[in-house]
Amino acid sequence: MIITLVDIALLTFMGATAFAILRLRSLFAVVMLSGVYSLLAASMFVALDAVDVAFTEAAVGAGISTVLMMATLALTGERERPSRHTPYVPLAVVLITGAALIYATFDMPPFGAADAPVNLHVAPRYLNDSFAEVGLPNVVTSVLASYRGYDTLGEVTVIFTAGVAVMLLLGGRKGDDAGIKNEPPEDDTGADDGGSAA
Amino acid sequence: MLQVVLEHYNYWIAILLMMVGFYTVVARGNLVKKLVGLNIFQTSVFLLYISMAKVTGGTAPILDDRFQVYSNPLPHVLILTAIVVGVATTALGLALVVRIRESYGTIEEDELDLMDGET
User: Fold this and answer.
1) Which of A88, A70, A80 is nearest to B108 (CA)?
2) CA B84 and chain centroid, separation
3) For the structural domain made of B2-118, what CATH number should be given?
4) Which residues contact A187 (CB under 8 A, 6 or more apart)?
5) H helix runs in chain B, sequence order
6) Cβ-defined contact of A52 to B27 (cutoff 8 Å)
7) Which domain holds residue A41?
8) Is residue A8 one of the residues assigned to a domain?
9) How many domains does chain A have?
10) Over the stretch B89-107, which tens digit does the pLDDT of each residue have?
11) Which residues in chain A have their CB less than 8 angstroms from residue B107's CB?
12) Domain shared by A65 and A121, yes or no
Protein backbone atom coordinates (compact mmCIF):
# COMPACT_ATOMS: atom_id res chain seq x y z
CA MET A 1 0.00 0.00 0.00
CA ILE A 2 2.77 2.44 0.96
CA ILE A 3 4.63 1.48 -2.19
CA THR A 4 1.55 2.30 -4.24
CA LEU A 5 1.26 5.69 -2.56
CA VAL A 6 4.94 6.50 -3.20
CA ASP A 7 4.44 5.39 -6.78
CA ILE A 8 1.42 7.64 -7.31
CA ALA A 9 3.00 10.65 -5.56
CA LEU A 10 6.20 10.45 -7.62
CA LEU A 11 4.30 10.06 -10.87
CA THR A 12 2.07 13.02 -10.04
CA PHE A 13 5.13 15.17 -9.29
CA MET A 14 6.65 14.14 -12.62
CA GLY A 15 3.49 15.21 -14.43
CA ALA A 16 3.42 18.57 -12.62
CA THR A 17 7.10 19.19 -13.42
CA ALA A 18 6.55 18.37 -17.08
CA PHE A 19 3.66 20.86 -17.31
CA ALA A 20 5.77 23.52 -15.57
CA ILE A 21 8.54 22.93 -18.14
CA LEU A 22 6.00 23.35 -20.93
CA ARG A 23 4.59 26.62 -19.52
CA LEU A 24 7.74 28.48 -18.36
CA ARG A 25 9.50 30.99 -20.63
CA SER A 26 12.72 31.31 -18.62
CA LEU A 27 15.04 28.70 -20.08
CA PHE A 28 17.22 28.68 -16.96
CA ALA A 29 14.21 27.55 -14.91
CA VAL A 30 13.30 25.04 -17.63
CA VAL A 31 16.75 23.44 -17.51
CA MET A 32 16.74 23.30 -13.70
CA LEU A 33 13.28 21.72 -13.76
CA SER A 34 14.44 19.16 -16.30
CA GLY A 35 17.11 18.18 -13.77
CA VAL A 36 14.40 17.86 -11.10
CA TYR A 37 12.35 15.79 -13.53
CA SER A 38 15.26 13.40 -14.13
CA LEU A 39 15.82 13.03 -10.40
CA LEU A 40 12.14 12.24 -9.86
CA ALA A 41 12.39 9.68 -12.66
CA ALA A 42 15.42 8.14 -10.94
CA SER A 43 13.47 7.88 -7.66
CA MET A 44 10.61 6.30 -9.59
CA PHE A 45 13.01 3.71 -11.04
CA VAL A 46 14.17 2.79 -7.52
CA ALA A 47 10.53 2.30 -6.52
CA LEU A 48 10.11 0.03 -9.57
CA ASP A 49 13.16 -2.14 -8.62
CA ALA A 50 15.36 -0.84 -11.45
CA VAL A 51 18.28 0.29 -9.30
CA ASP A 52 20.88 0.21 -12.09
CA VAL A 53 18.65 2.32 -14.32
CA ALA A 54 18.05 4.78 -11.46
CA PHE A 55 21.79 5.10 -10.91
CA THR A 56 22.41 5.85 -14.58
CA GLU A 57 19.46 8.24 -14.86
CA ALA A 58 20.61 10.22 -11.81
CA ALA A 59 24.19 10.47 -13.09
CA VAL A 60 23.49 11.00 -16.78
CA GLY A 61 20.00 12.52 -16.93
CA ALA A 62 20.10 14.77 -13.88
CA GLY A 63 23.86 15.40 -14.01
CA ILE A 64 25.46 15.45 -17.44
CA SER A 65 22.39 16.55 -19.43
CA THR A 66 21.81 19.51 -17.11
CA VAL A 67 25.45 20.59 -17.36
CA LEU A 68 25.35 20.36 -21.17
CA MET A 69 22.15 22.42 -21.31
CA MET A 70 23.55 25.06 -18.94
CA ALA A 71 26.64 25.35 -21.15
CA THR A 72 24.39 25.79 -24.18
CA LEU A 73 22.33 28.47 -22.44
CA ALA A 74 25.51 30.37 -21.60
CA LEU A 75 26.21 30.55 -25.35
CA THR A 76 22.69 31.16 -26.66
CA GLY A 77 20.66 33.25 -24.17
CA GLU A 78 18.08 32.48 -21.52
CA ARG A 79 14.73 33.81 -22.70
CA GLU A 80 12.23 32.07 -24.92
CA ARG A 81 10.08 34.34 -27.09
CA PRO A 82 6.34 33.65 -27.22
CA SER A 83 5.42 31.73 -30.34
CA ARG A 84 3.36 33.50 -32.95
CA HIS A 85 1.71 30.31 -34.16
CA THR A 86 -1.71 29.22 -32.95
CA PRO A 87 -1.28 25.89 -31.15
CA TYR A 88 -4.49 24.21 -32.36
CA VAL A 89 -3.02 21.80 -34.92
CA PRO A 90 -0.27 20.47 -32.59
CA LEU A 91 -2.79 20.26 -29.75
CA ALA A 92 -5.18 18.21 -31.88
CA VAL A 93 -2.40 15.87 -33.04
CA VAL A 94 -1.18 15.37 -29.45
CA LEU A 95 -4.68 14.76 -28.06
CA ILE A 96 -5.57 12.23 -30.77
CA THR A 97 -2.26 10.38 -30.34
CA GLY A 98 -2.66 10.37 -26.56
CA ALA A 99 -6.23 9.09 -26.75
CA ALA A 100 -5.19 6.27 -29.08
CA LEU A 101 -2.35 5.26 -26.73
CA ILE A 102 -4.61 5.37 -23.65
CA TYR A 103 -7.10 3.18 -25.52
CA ALA A 104 -4.27 0.73 -26.23
CA THR A 105 -3.33 0.44 -22.54
CA PHE A 106 -6.59 -1.36 -21.81
CA ASP A 107 -5.18 -4.36 -23.68
CA MET A 108 -2.00 -4.35 -21.61
CA PRO A 109 -1.51 -6.73 -18.69
CA PRO A 110 -2.15 -5.14 -15.28
CA PHE A 111 0.74 -3.30 -13.66
CA GLY A 112 2.93 -5.71 -11.68
CA ALA A 113 1.47 -8.93 -13.08
CA ALA A 114 3.96 -11.79 -12.73
CA ASP A 115 2.34 -13.70 -15.63
CA ALA A 116 2.58 -10.83 -18.13
CA PRO A 117 4.05 -12.01 -21.47
CA VAL A 118 7.13 -9.83 -21.00
CA ASN A 119 8.03 -11.76 -17.82
CA LEU A 120 7.58 -15.27 -19.22
CA HIS A 121 10.16 -15.82 -21.94
CA VAL A 122 13.80 -14.77 -21.75
CA ALA A 123 13.91 -13.25 -18.27
CA PRO A 124 13.36 -16.48 -16.24
CA ARG A 125 16.34 -18.09 -17.95
CA TYR A 126 18.57 -15.16 -17.03
CA LEU A 127 17.31 -15.20 -13.45
CA ASN A 128 17.77 -18.97 -13.07
CA ASP A 129 20.99 -19.64 -14.96
CA SER A 130 23.03 -16.45 -15.05
CA PHE A 131 24.68 -17.02 -11.68
CA ALA A 132 25.95 -20.44 -12.74
CA GLU A 133 26.99 -19.23 -16.21
CA VAL A 134 28.47 -15.79 -15.48
CA GLY A 135 28.97 -15.81 -11.72
CA LEU A 136 27.66 -12.34 -10.88
CA PRO A 137 24.79 -11.78 -8.42
CA ASN A 138 23.57 -8.71 -10.32
CA VAL A 139 21.61 -10.09 -13.28
CA VAL A 140 21.49 -6.71 -15.05
CA THR A 141 25.29 -6.61 -15.12
CA SER A 142 25.45 -10.20 -16.39
CA VAL A 143 23.11 -9.47 -19.27
CA LEU A 144 24.68 -6.12 -20.11
CA ALA A 145 28.30 -7.24 -20.09
CA SER A 146 28.06 -10.90 -21.06
CA TYR A 147 24.88 -12.10 -22.80
CA ARG A 148 24.37 -8.85 -24.68
CA GLY A 149 27.94 -7.60 -24.75
CA TYR A 150 27.69 -6.78 -28.45
CA ASP A 151 24.78 -4.43 -27.75
CA THR A 152 26.99 -2.58 -25.32
CA LEU A 153 29.76 -2.44 -27.90
CA GLY A 154 27.25 -0.91 -30.34
CA GLU A 155 26.23 1.61 -27.69
CA VAL A 156 29.86 2.64 -27.24
CA THR A 157 30.08 3.07 -31.02
CA VAL A 158 27.05 5.39 -30.95
CA ILE A 159 28.61 7.50 -28.19
CA PHE A 160 31.90 7.66 -30.07
CA THR A 161 30.10 8.78 -33.24
CA ALA A 162 28.18 11.46 -31.32
CA GLY A 163 31.42 12.66 -29.72
CA VAL A 164 33.12 12.90 -33.11
CA ALA A 165 30.12 14.79 -34.52
CA VAL A 166 30.12 17.27 -31.62
CA MET A 167 33.84 17.84 -32.09
CA LEU A 168 33.38 18.40 -35.81
CA LEU A 169 30.57 20.90 -35.15
CA LEU A 170 32.16 22.86 -32.32
CA GLY A 171 35.89 22.16 -32.42
CA GLY A 172 38.42 23.61 -34.84
CA ARG A 173 36.25 26.49 -36.03
CA LYS A 174 39.05 29.01 -35.71
CA GLY A 175 41.32 27.10 -38.04
CA ASP A 176 43.88 26.37 -35.32
CA ASP A 177 44.32 23.28 -33.23
CA ALA A 178 42.81 24.63 -29.97
CA GLY A 179 39.41 23.09 -29.30
CA ILE A 180 38.79 25.53 -26.46
CA LYS A 181 36.18 28.16 -27.19
CA ASN A 182 37.55 31.70 -26.96
CA GLU A 183 34.75 34.12 -27.63
CA PRO A 184 36.38 37.30 -29.07
CA PRO A 185 38.31 35.86 -32.08
CA GLU A 186 35.37 33.56 -32.83
CA ASP A 187 33.13 36.53 -33.72
CA ASP A 188 35.16 37.11 -36.89
CA THR A 189 34.60 33.60 -38.18
CA GLY A 190 30.95 33.79 -37.15
CA ALA A 191 30.54 36.99 -39.17
CA ASP A 192 32.30 35.39 -42.14
CA ASP A 193 30.00 32.40 -41.99
CA GLY A 194 26.97 34.66 -41.78
CA GLY A 195 28.26 36.70 -44.75
CA SER A 196 28.78 33.68 -46.96
CA ALA A 197 25.40 32.24 -45.98
CA ALA A 198 23.47 35.46 -46.62
CA MET B 1 -13.08 1.11 -11.08
CA LEU B 2 -10.31 1.95 -8.60
CA GLN B 3 -8.77 -1.40 -9.48
CA VAL B 4 -8.65 -0.45 -13.17
CA VAL B 5 -7.09 2.94 -12.35
CA LEU B 6 -4.40 1.41 -10.12
CA GLU B 7 -3.60 -1.26 -12.69
CA HIS B 8 -3.02 1.33 -15.41
CA TYR B 9 -1.88 4.45 -13.54
CA ASN B 10 1.80 4.03 -14.46
CA TYR B 11 0.99 3.55 -18.12
CA TRP B 12 -1.35 6.53 -18.22
CA ILE B 13 1.13 8.87 -16.58
CA ALA B 14 3.84 7.64 -18.96
CA ILE B 15 1.56 8.47 -21.89
CA LEU B 16 0.65 11.85 -20.38
CA LEU B 17 4.36 12.71 -20.02
CA MET B 18 4.99 11.44 -23.54
CA MET B 19 2.32 13.76 -24.91
CA VAL B 20 3.59 16.76 -22.91
CA GLY B 21 7.06 16.14 -24.36
CA PHE B 22 5.63 15.65 -27.84
CA TYR B 23 3.66 18.91 -27.59
CA THR B 24 6.77 20.77 -26.39
CA VAL B 25 8.74 19.48 -29.37
CA VAL B 26 6.02 20.34 -31.91
CA ALA B 27 4.53 23.59 -30.61
CA ARG B 28 7.40 25.48 -28.93
CA GLY B 29 9.70 27.51 -31.19
CA ASN B 30 12.83 27.70 -29.04
CA LEU B 31 15.35 25.02 -30.00
CA VAL B 32 16.64 24.42 -26.44
CA LYS B 33 13.04 24.04 -25.26
CA LYS B 34 12.45 21.49 -28.01
CA LEU B 35 15.41 19.43 -26.77
CA VAL B 36 14.10 19.55 -23.20
CA GLY B 37 10.77 18.30 -24.58
CA LEU B 38 12.59 15.49 -26.36
CA ASN B 39 14.19 14.52 -23.04
CA ILE B 40 10.76 14.41 -21.36
CA PHE B 41 9.53 12.17 -24.17
CA GLN B 42 12.52 9.84 -23.79
CA THR B 43 12.16 9.54 -20.02
CA SER B 44 8.47 8.71 -20.40
CA VAL B 45 9.38 5.80 -22.68
CA PHE B 46 11.89 4.61 -20.07
CA LEU B 47 9.14 4.79 -17.46
CA LEU B 48 6.81 2.73 -19.64
CA TYR B 49 9.42 -0.02 -20.11
CA ILE B 50 10.45 -0.13 -16.45
CA SER B 51 6.77 -0.23 -15.38
CA MET B 52 6.27 -3.30 -17.56
CA ALA B 53 9.26 -5.00 -15.87
CA LYS B 54 7.90 -4.57 -12.33
CA VAL B 55 6.54 -7.67 -10.63
CA THR B 56 4.38 -7.15 -7.55
CA GLY B 57 6.21 -8.33 -4.44
CA GLY B 58 9.45 -8.65 -6.39
CA THR B 59 12.76 -7.07 -5.58
CA ALA B 60 15.64 -5.68 -7.63
CA PRO B 61 17.23 -8.41 -9.81
CA ILE B 62 20.29 -8.96 -7.63
CA LEU B 63 20.40 -12.64 -6.72
CA ASP B 64 20.32 -13.57 -3.06
CA ASP B 65 19.13 -16.64 -1.16
CA ARG B 66 16.69 -14.58 0.90
CA PHE B 67 14.52 -13.61 -2.10
CA GLN B 68 12.53 -15.70 -4.55
CA VAL B 69 10.68 -13.11 -6.67
CA TYR B 70 12.64 -10.67 -8.83
CA SER B 71 11.55 -7.99 -11.28
CA ASN B 72 12.38 -8.61 -14.93
CA PRO B 73 16.03 -7.60 -15.62
CA LEU B 74 15.79 -7.49 -19.42
CA PRO B 75 13.95 -4.13 -19.82
CA HIS B 76 16.40 -2.65 -17.32
CA VAL B 77 19.29 -3.56 -19.61
CA LEU B 78 17.55 -2.12 -22.67
CA ILE B 79 16.80 1.15 -20.88
CA LEU B 80 20.35 1.45 -19.53
CA THR B 81 21.54 1.46 -23.13
CA ALA B 82 18.79 3.88 -24.15
CA ILE B 83 19.66 6.41 -21.43
CA VAL B 84 23.28 6.60 -22.53
CA VAL B 85 22.34 6.85 -26.21
CA GLY B 86 19.81 9.53 -25.22
CA VAL B 87 22.44 11.76 -23.68
CA ALA B 88 24.59 11.31 -26.80
CA THR B 89 21.75 12.58 -29.03
CA THR B 90 21.07 15.44 -26.59
CA ALA B 91 24.72 16.49 -26.76
CA LEU B 92 24.66 16.40 -30.56
CA GLY B 93 21.41 18.41 -30.67
CA LEU B 94 22.81 21.04 -28.32
CA ALA B 95 25.97 21.31 -30.42
CA LEU B 96 23.77 21.94 -33.48
CA VAL B 97 21.87 24.63 -31.52
CA VAL B 98 25.14 26.38 -30.66
CA ARG B 99 26.21 26.33 -34.33
CA ILE B 100 22.80 27.66 -35.47
CA ARG B 101 23.05 30.47 -32.94
CA GLU B 102 26.52 31.40 -34.25
CA SER B 103 25.47 31.44 -37.88
CA TYR B 104 22.02 33.03 -37.56
CA GLY B 105 22.15 34.92 -34.25
CA THR B 106 18.92 33.35 -32.98
CA ILE B 107 17.53 29.99 -31.90
CA GLU B 108 13.85 30.85 -32.38
CA GLU B 109 12.22 28.81 -35.11
CA ASP B 110 10.02 31.69 -36.38
CA GLU B 111 13.01 33.94 -36.99
CA LEU B 112 15.04 31.14 -38.58
CA ASP B 113 12.17 30.50 -41.01
CA LEU B 114 12.07 34.21 -41.91
CA MET B 115 15.84 34.28 -42.57
CA ASP B 116 15.65 31.17 -44.75
CA GLY B 117 12.81 32.82 -46.71
CA GLU B 118 14.97 35.89 -47.41
CA THR B 119 17.90 34.09 -49.01
Assistant:
1) A80
2) 12
3) 1.10.287.3510
4) none
5) 2-27, 31-53, 73-104, 109-118
6) no
7) 1-81
8) yes
9) 2
10) 999 999 999 999 988 888 8
11) 76-77
12) no
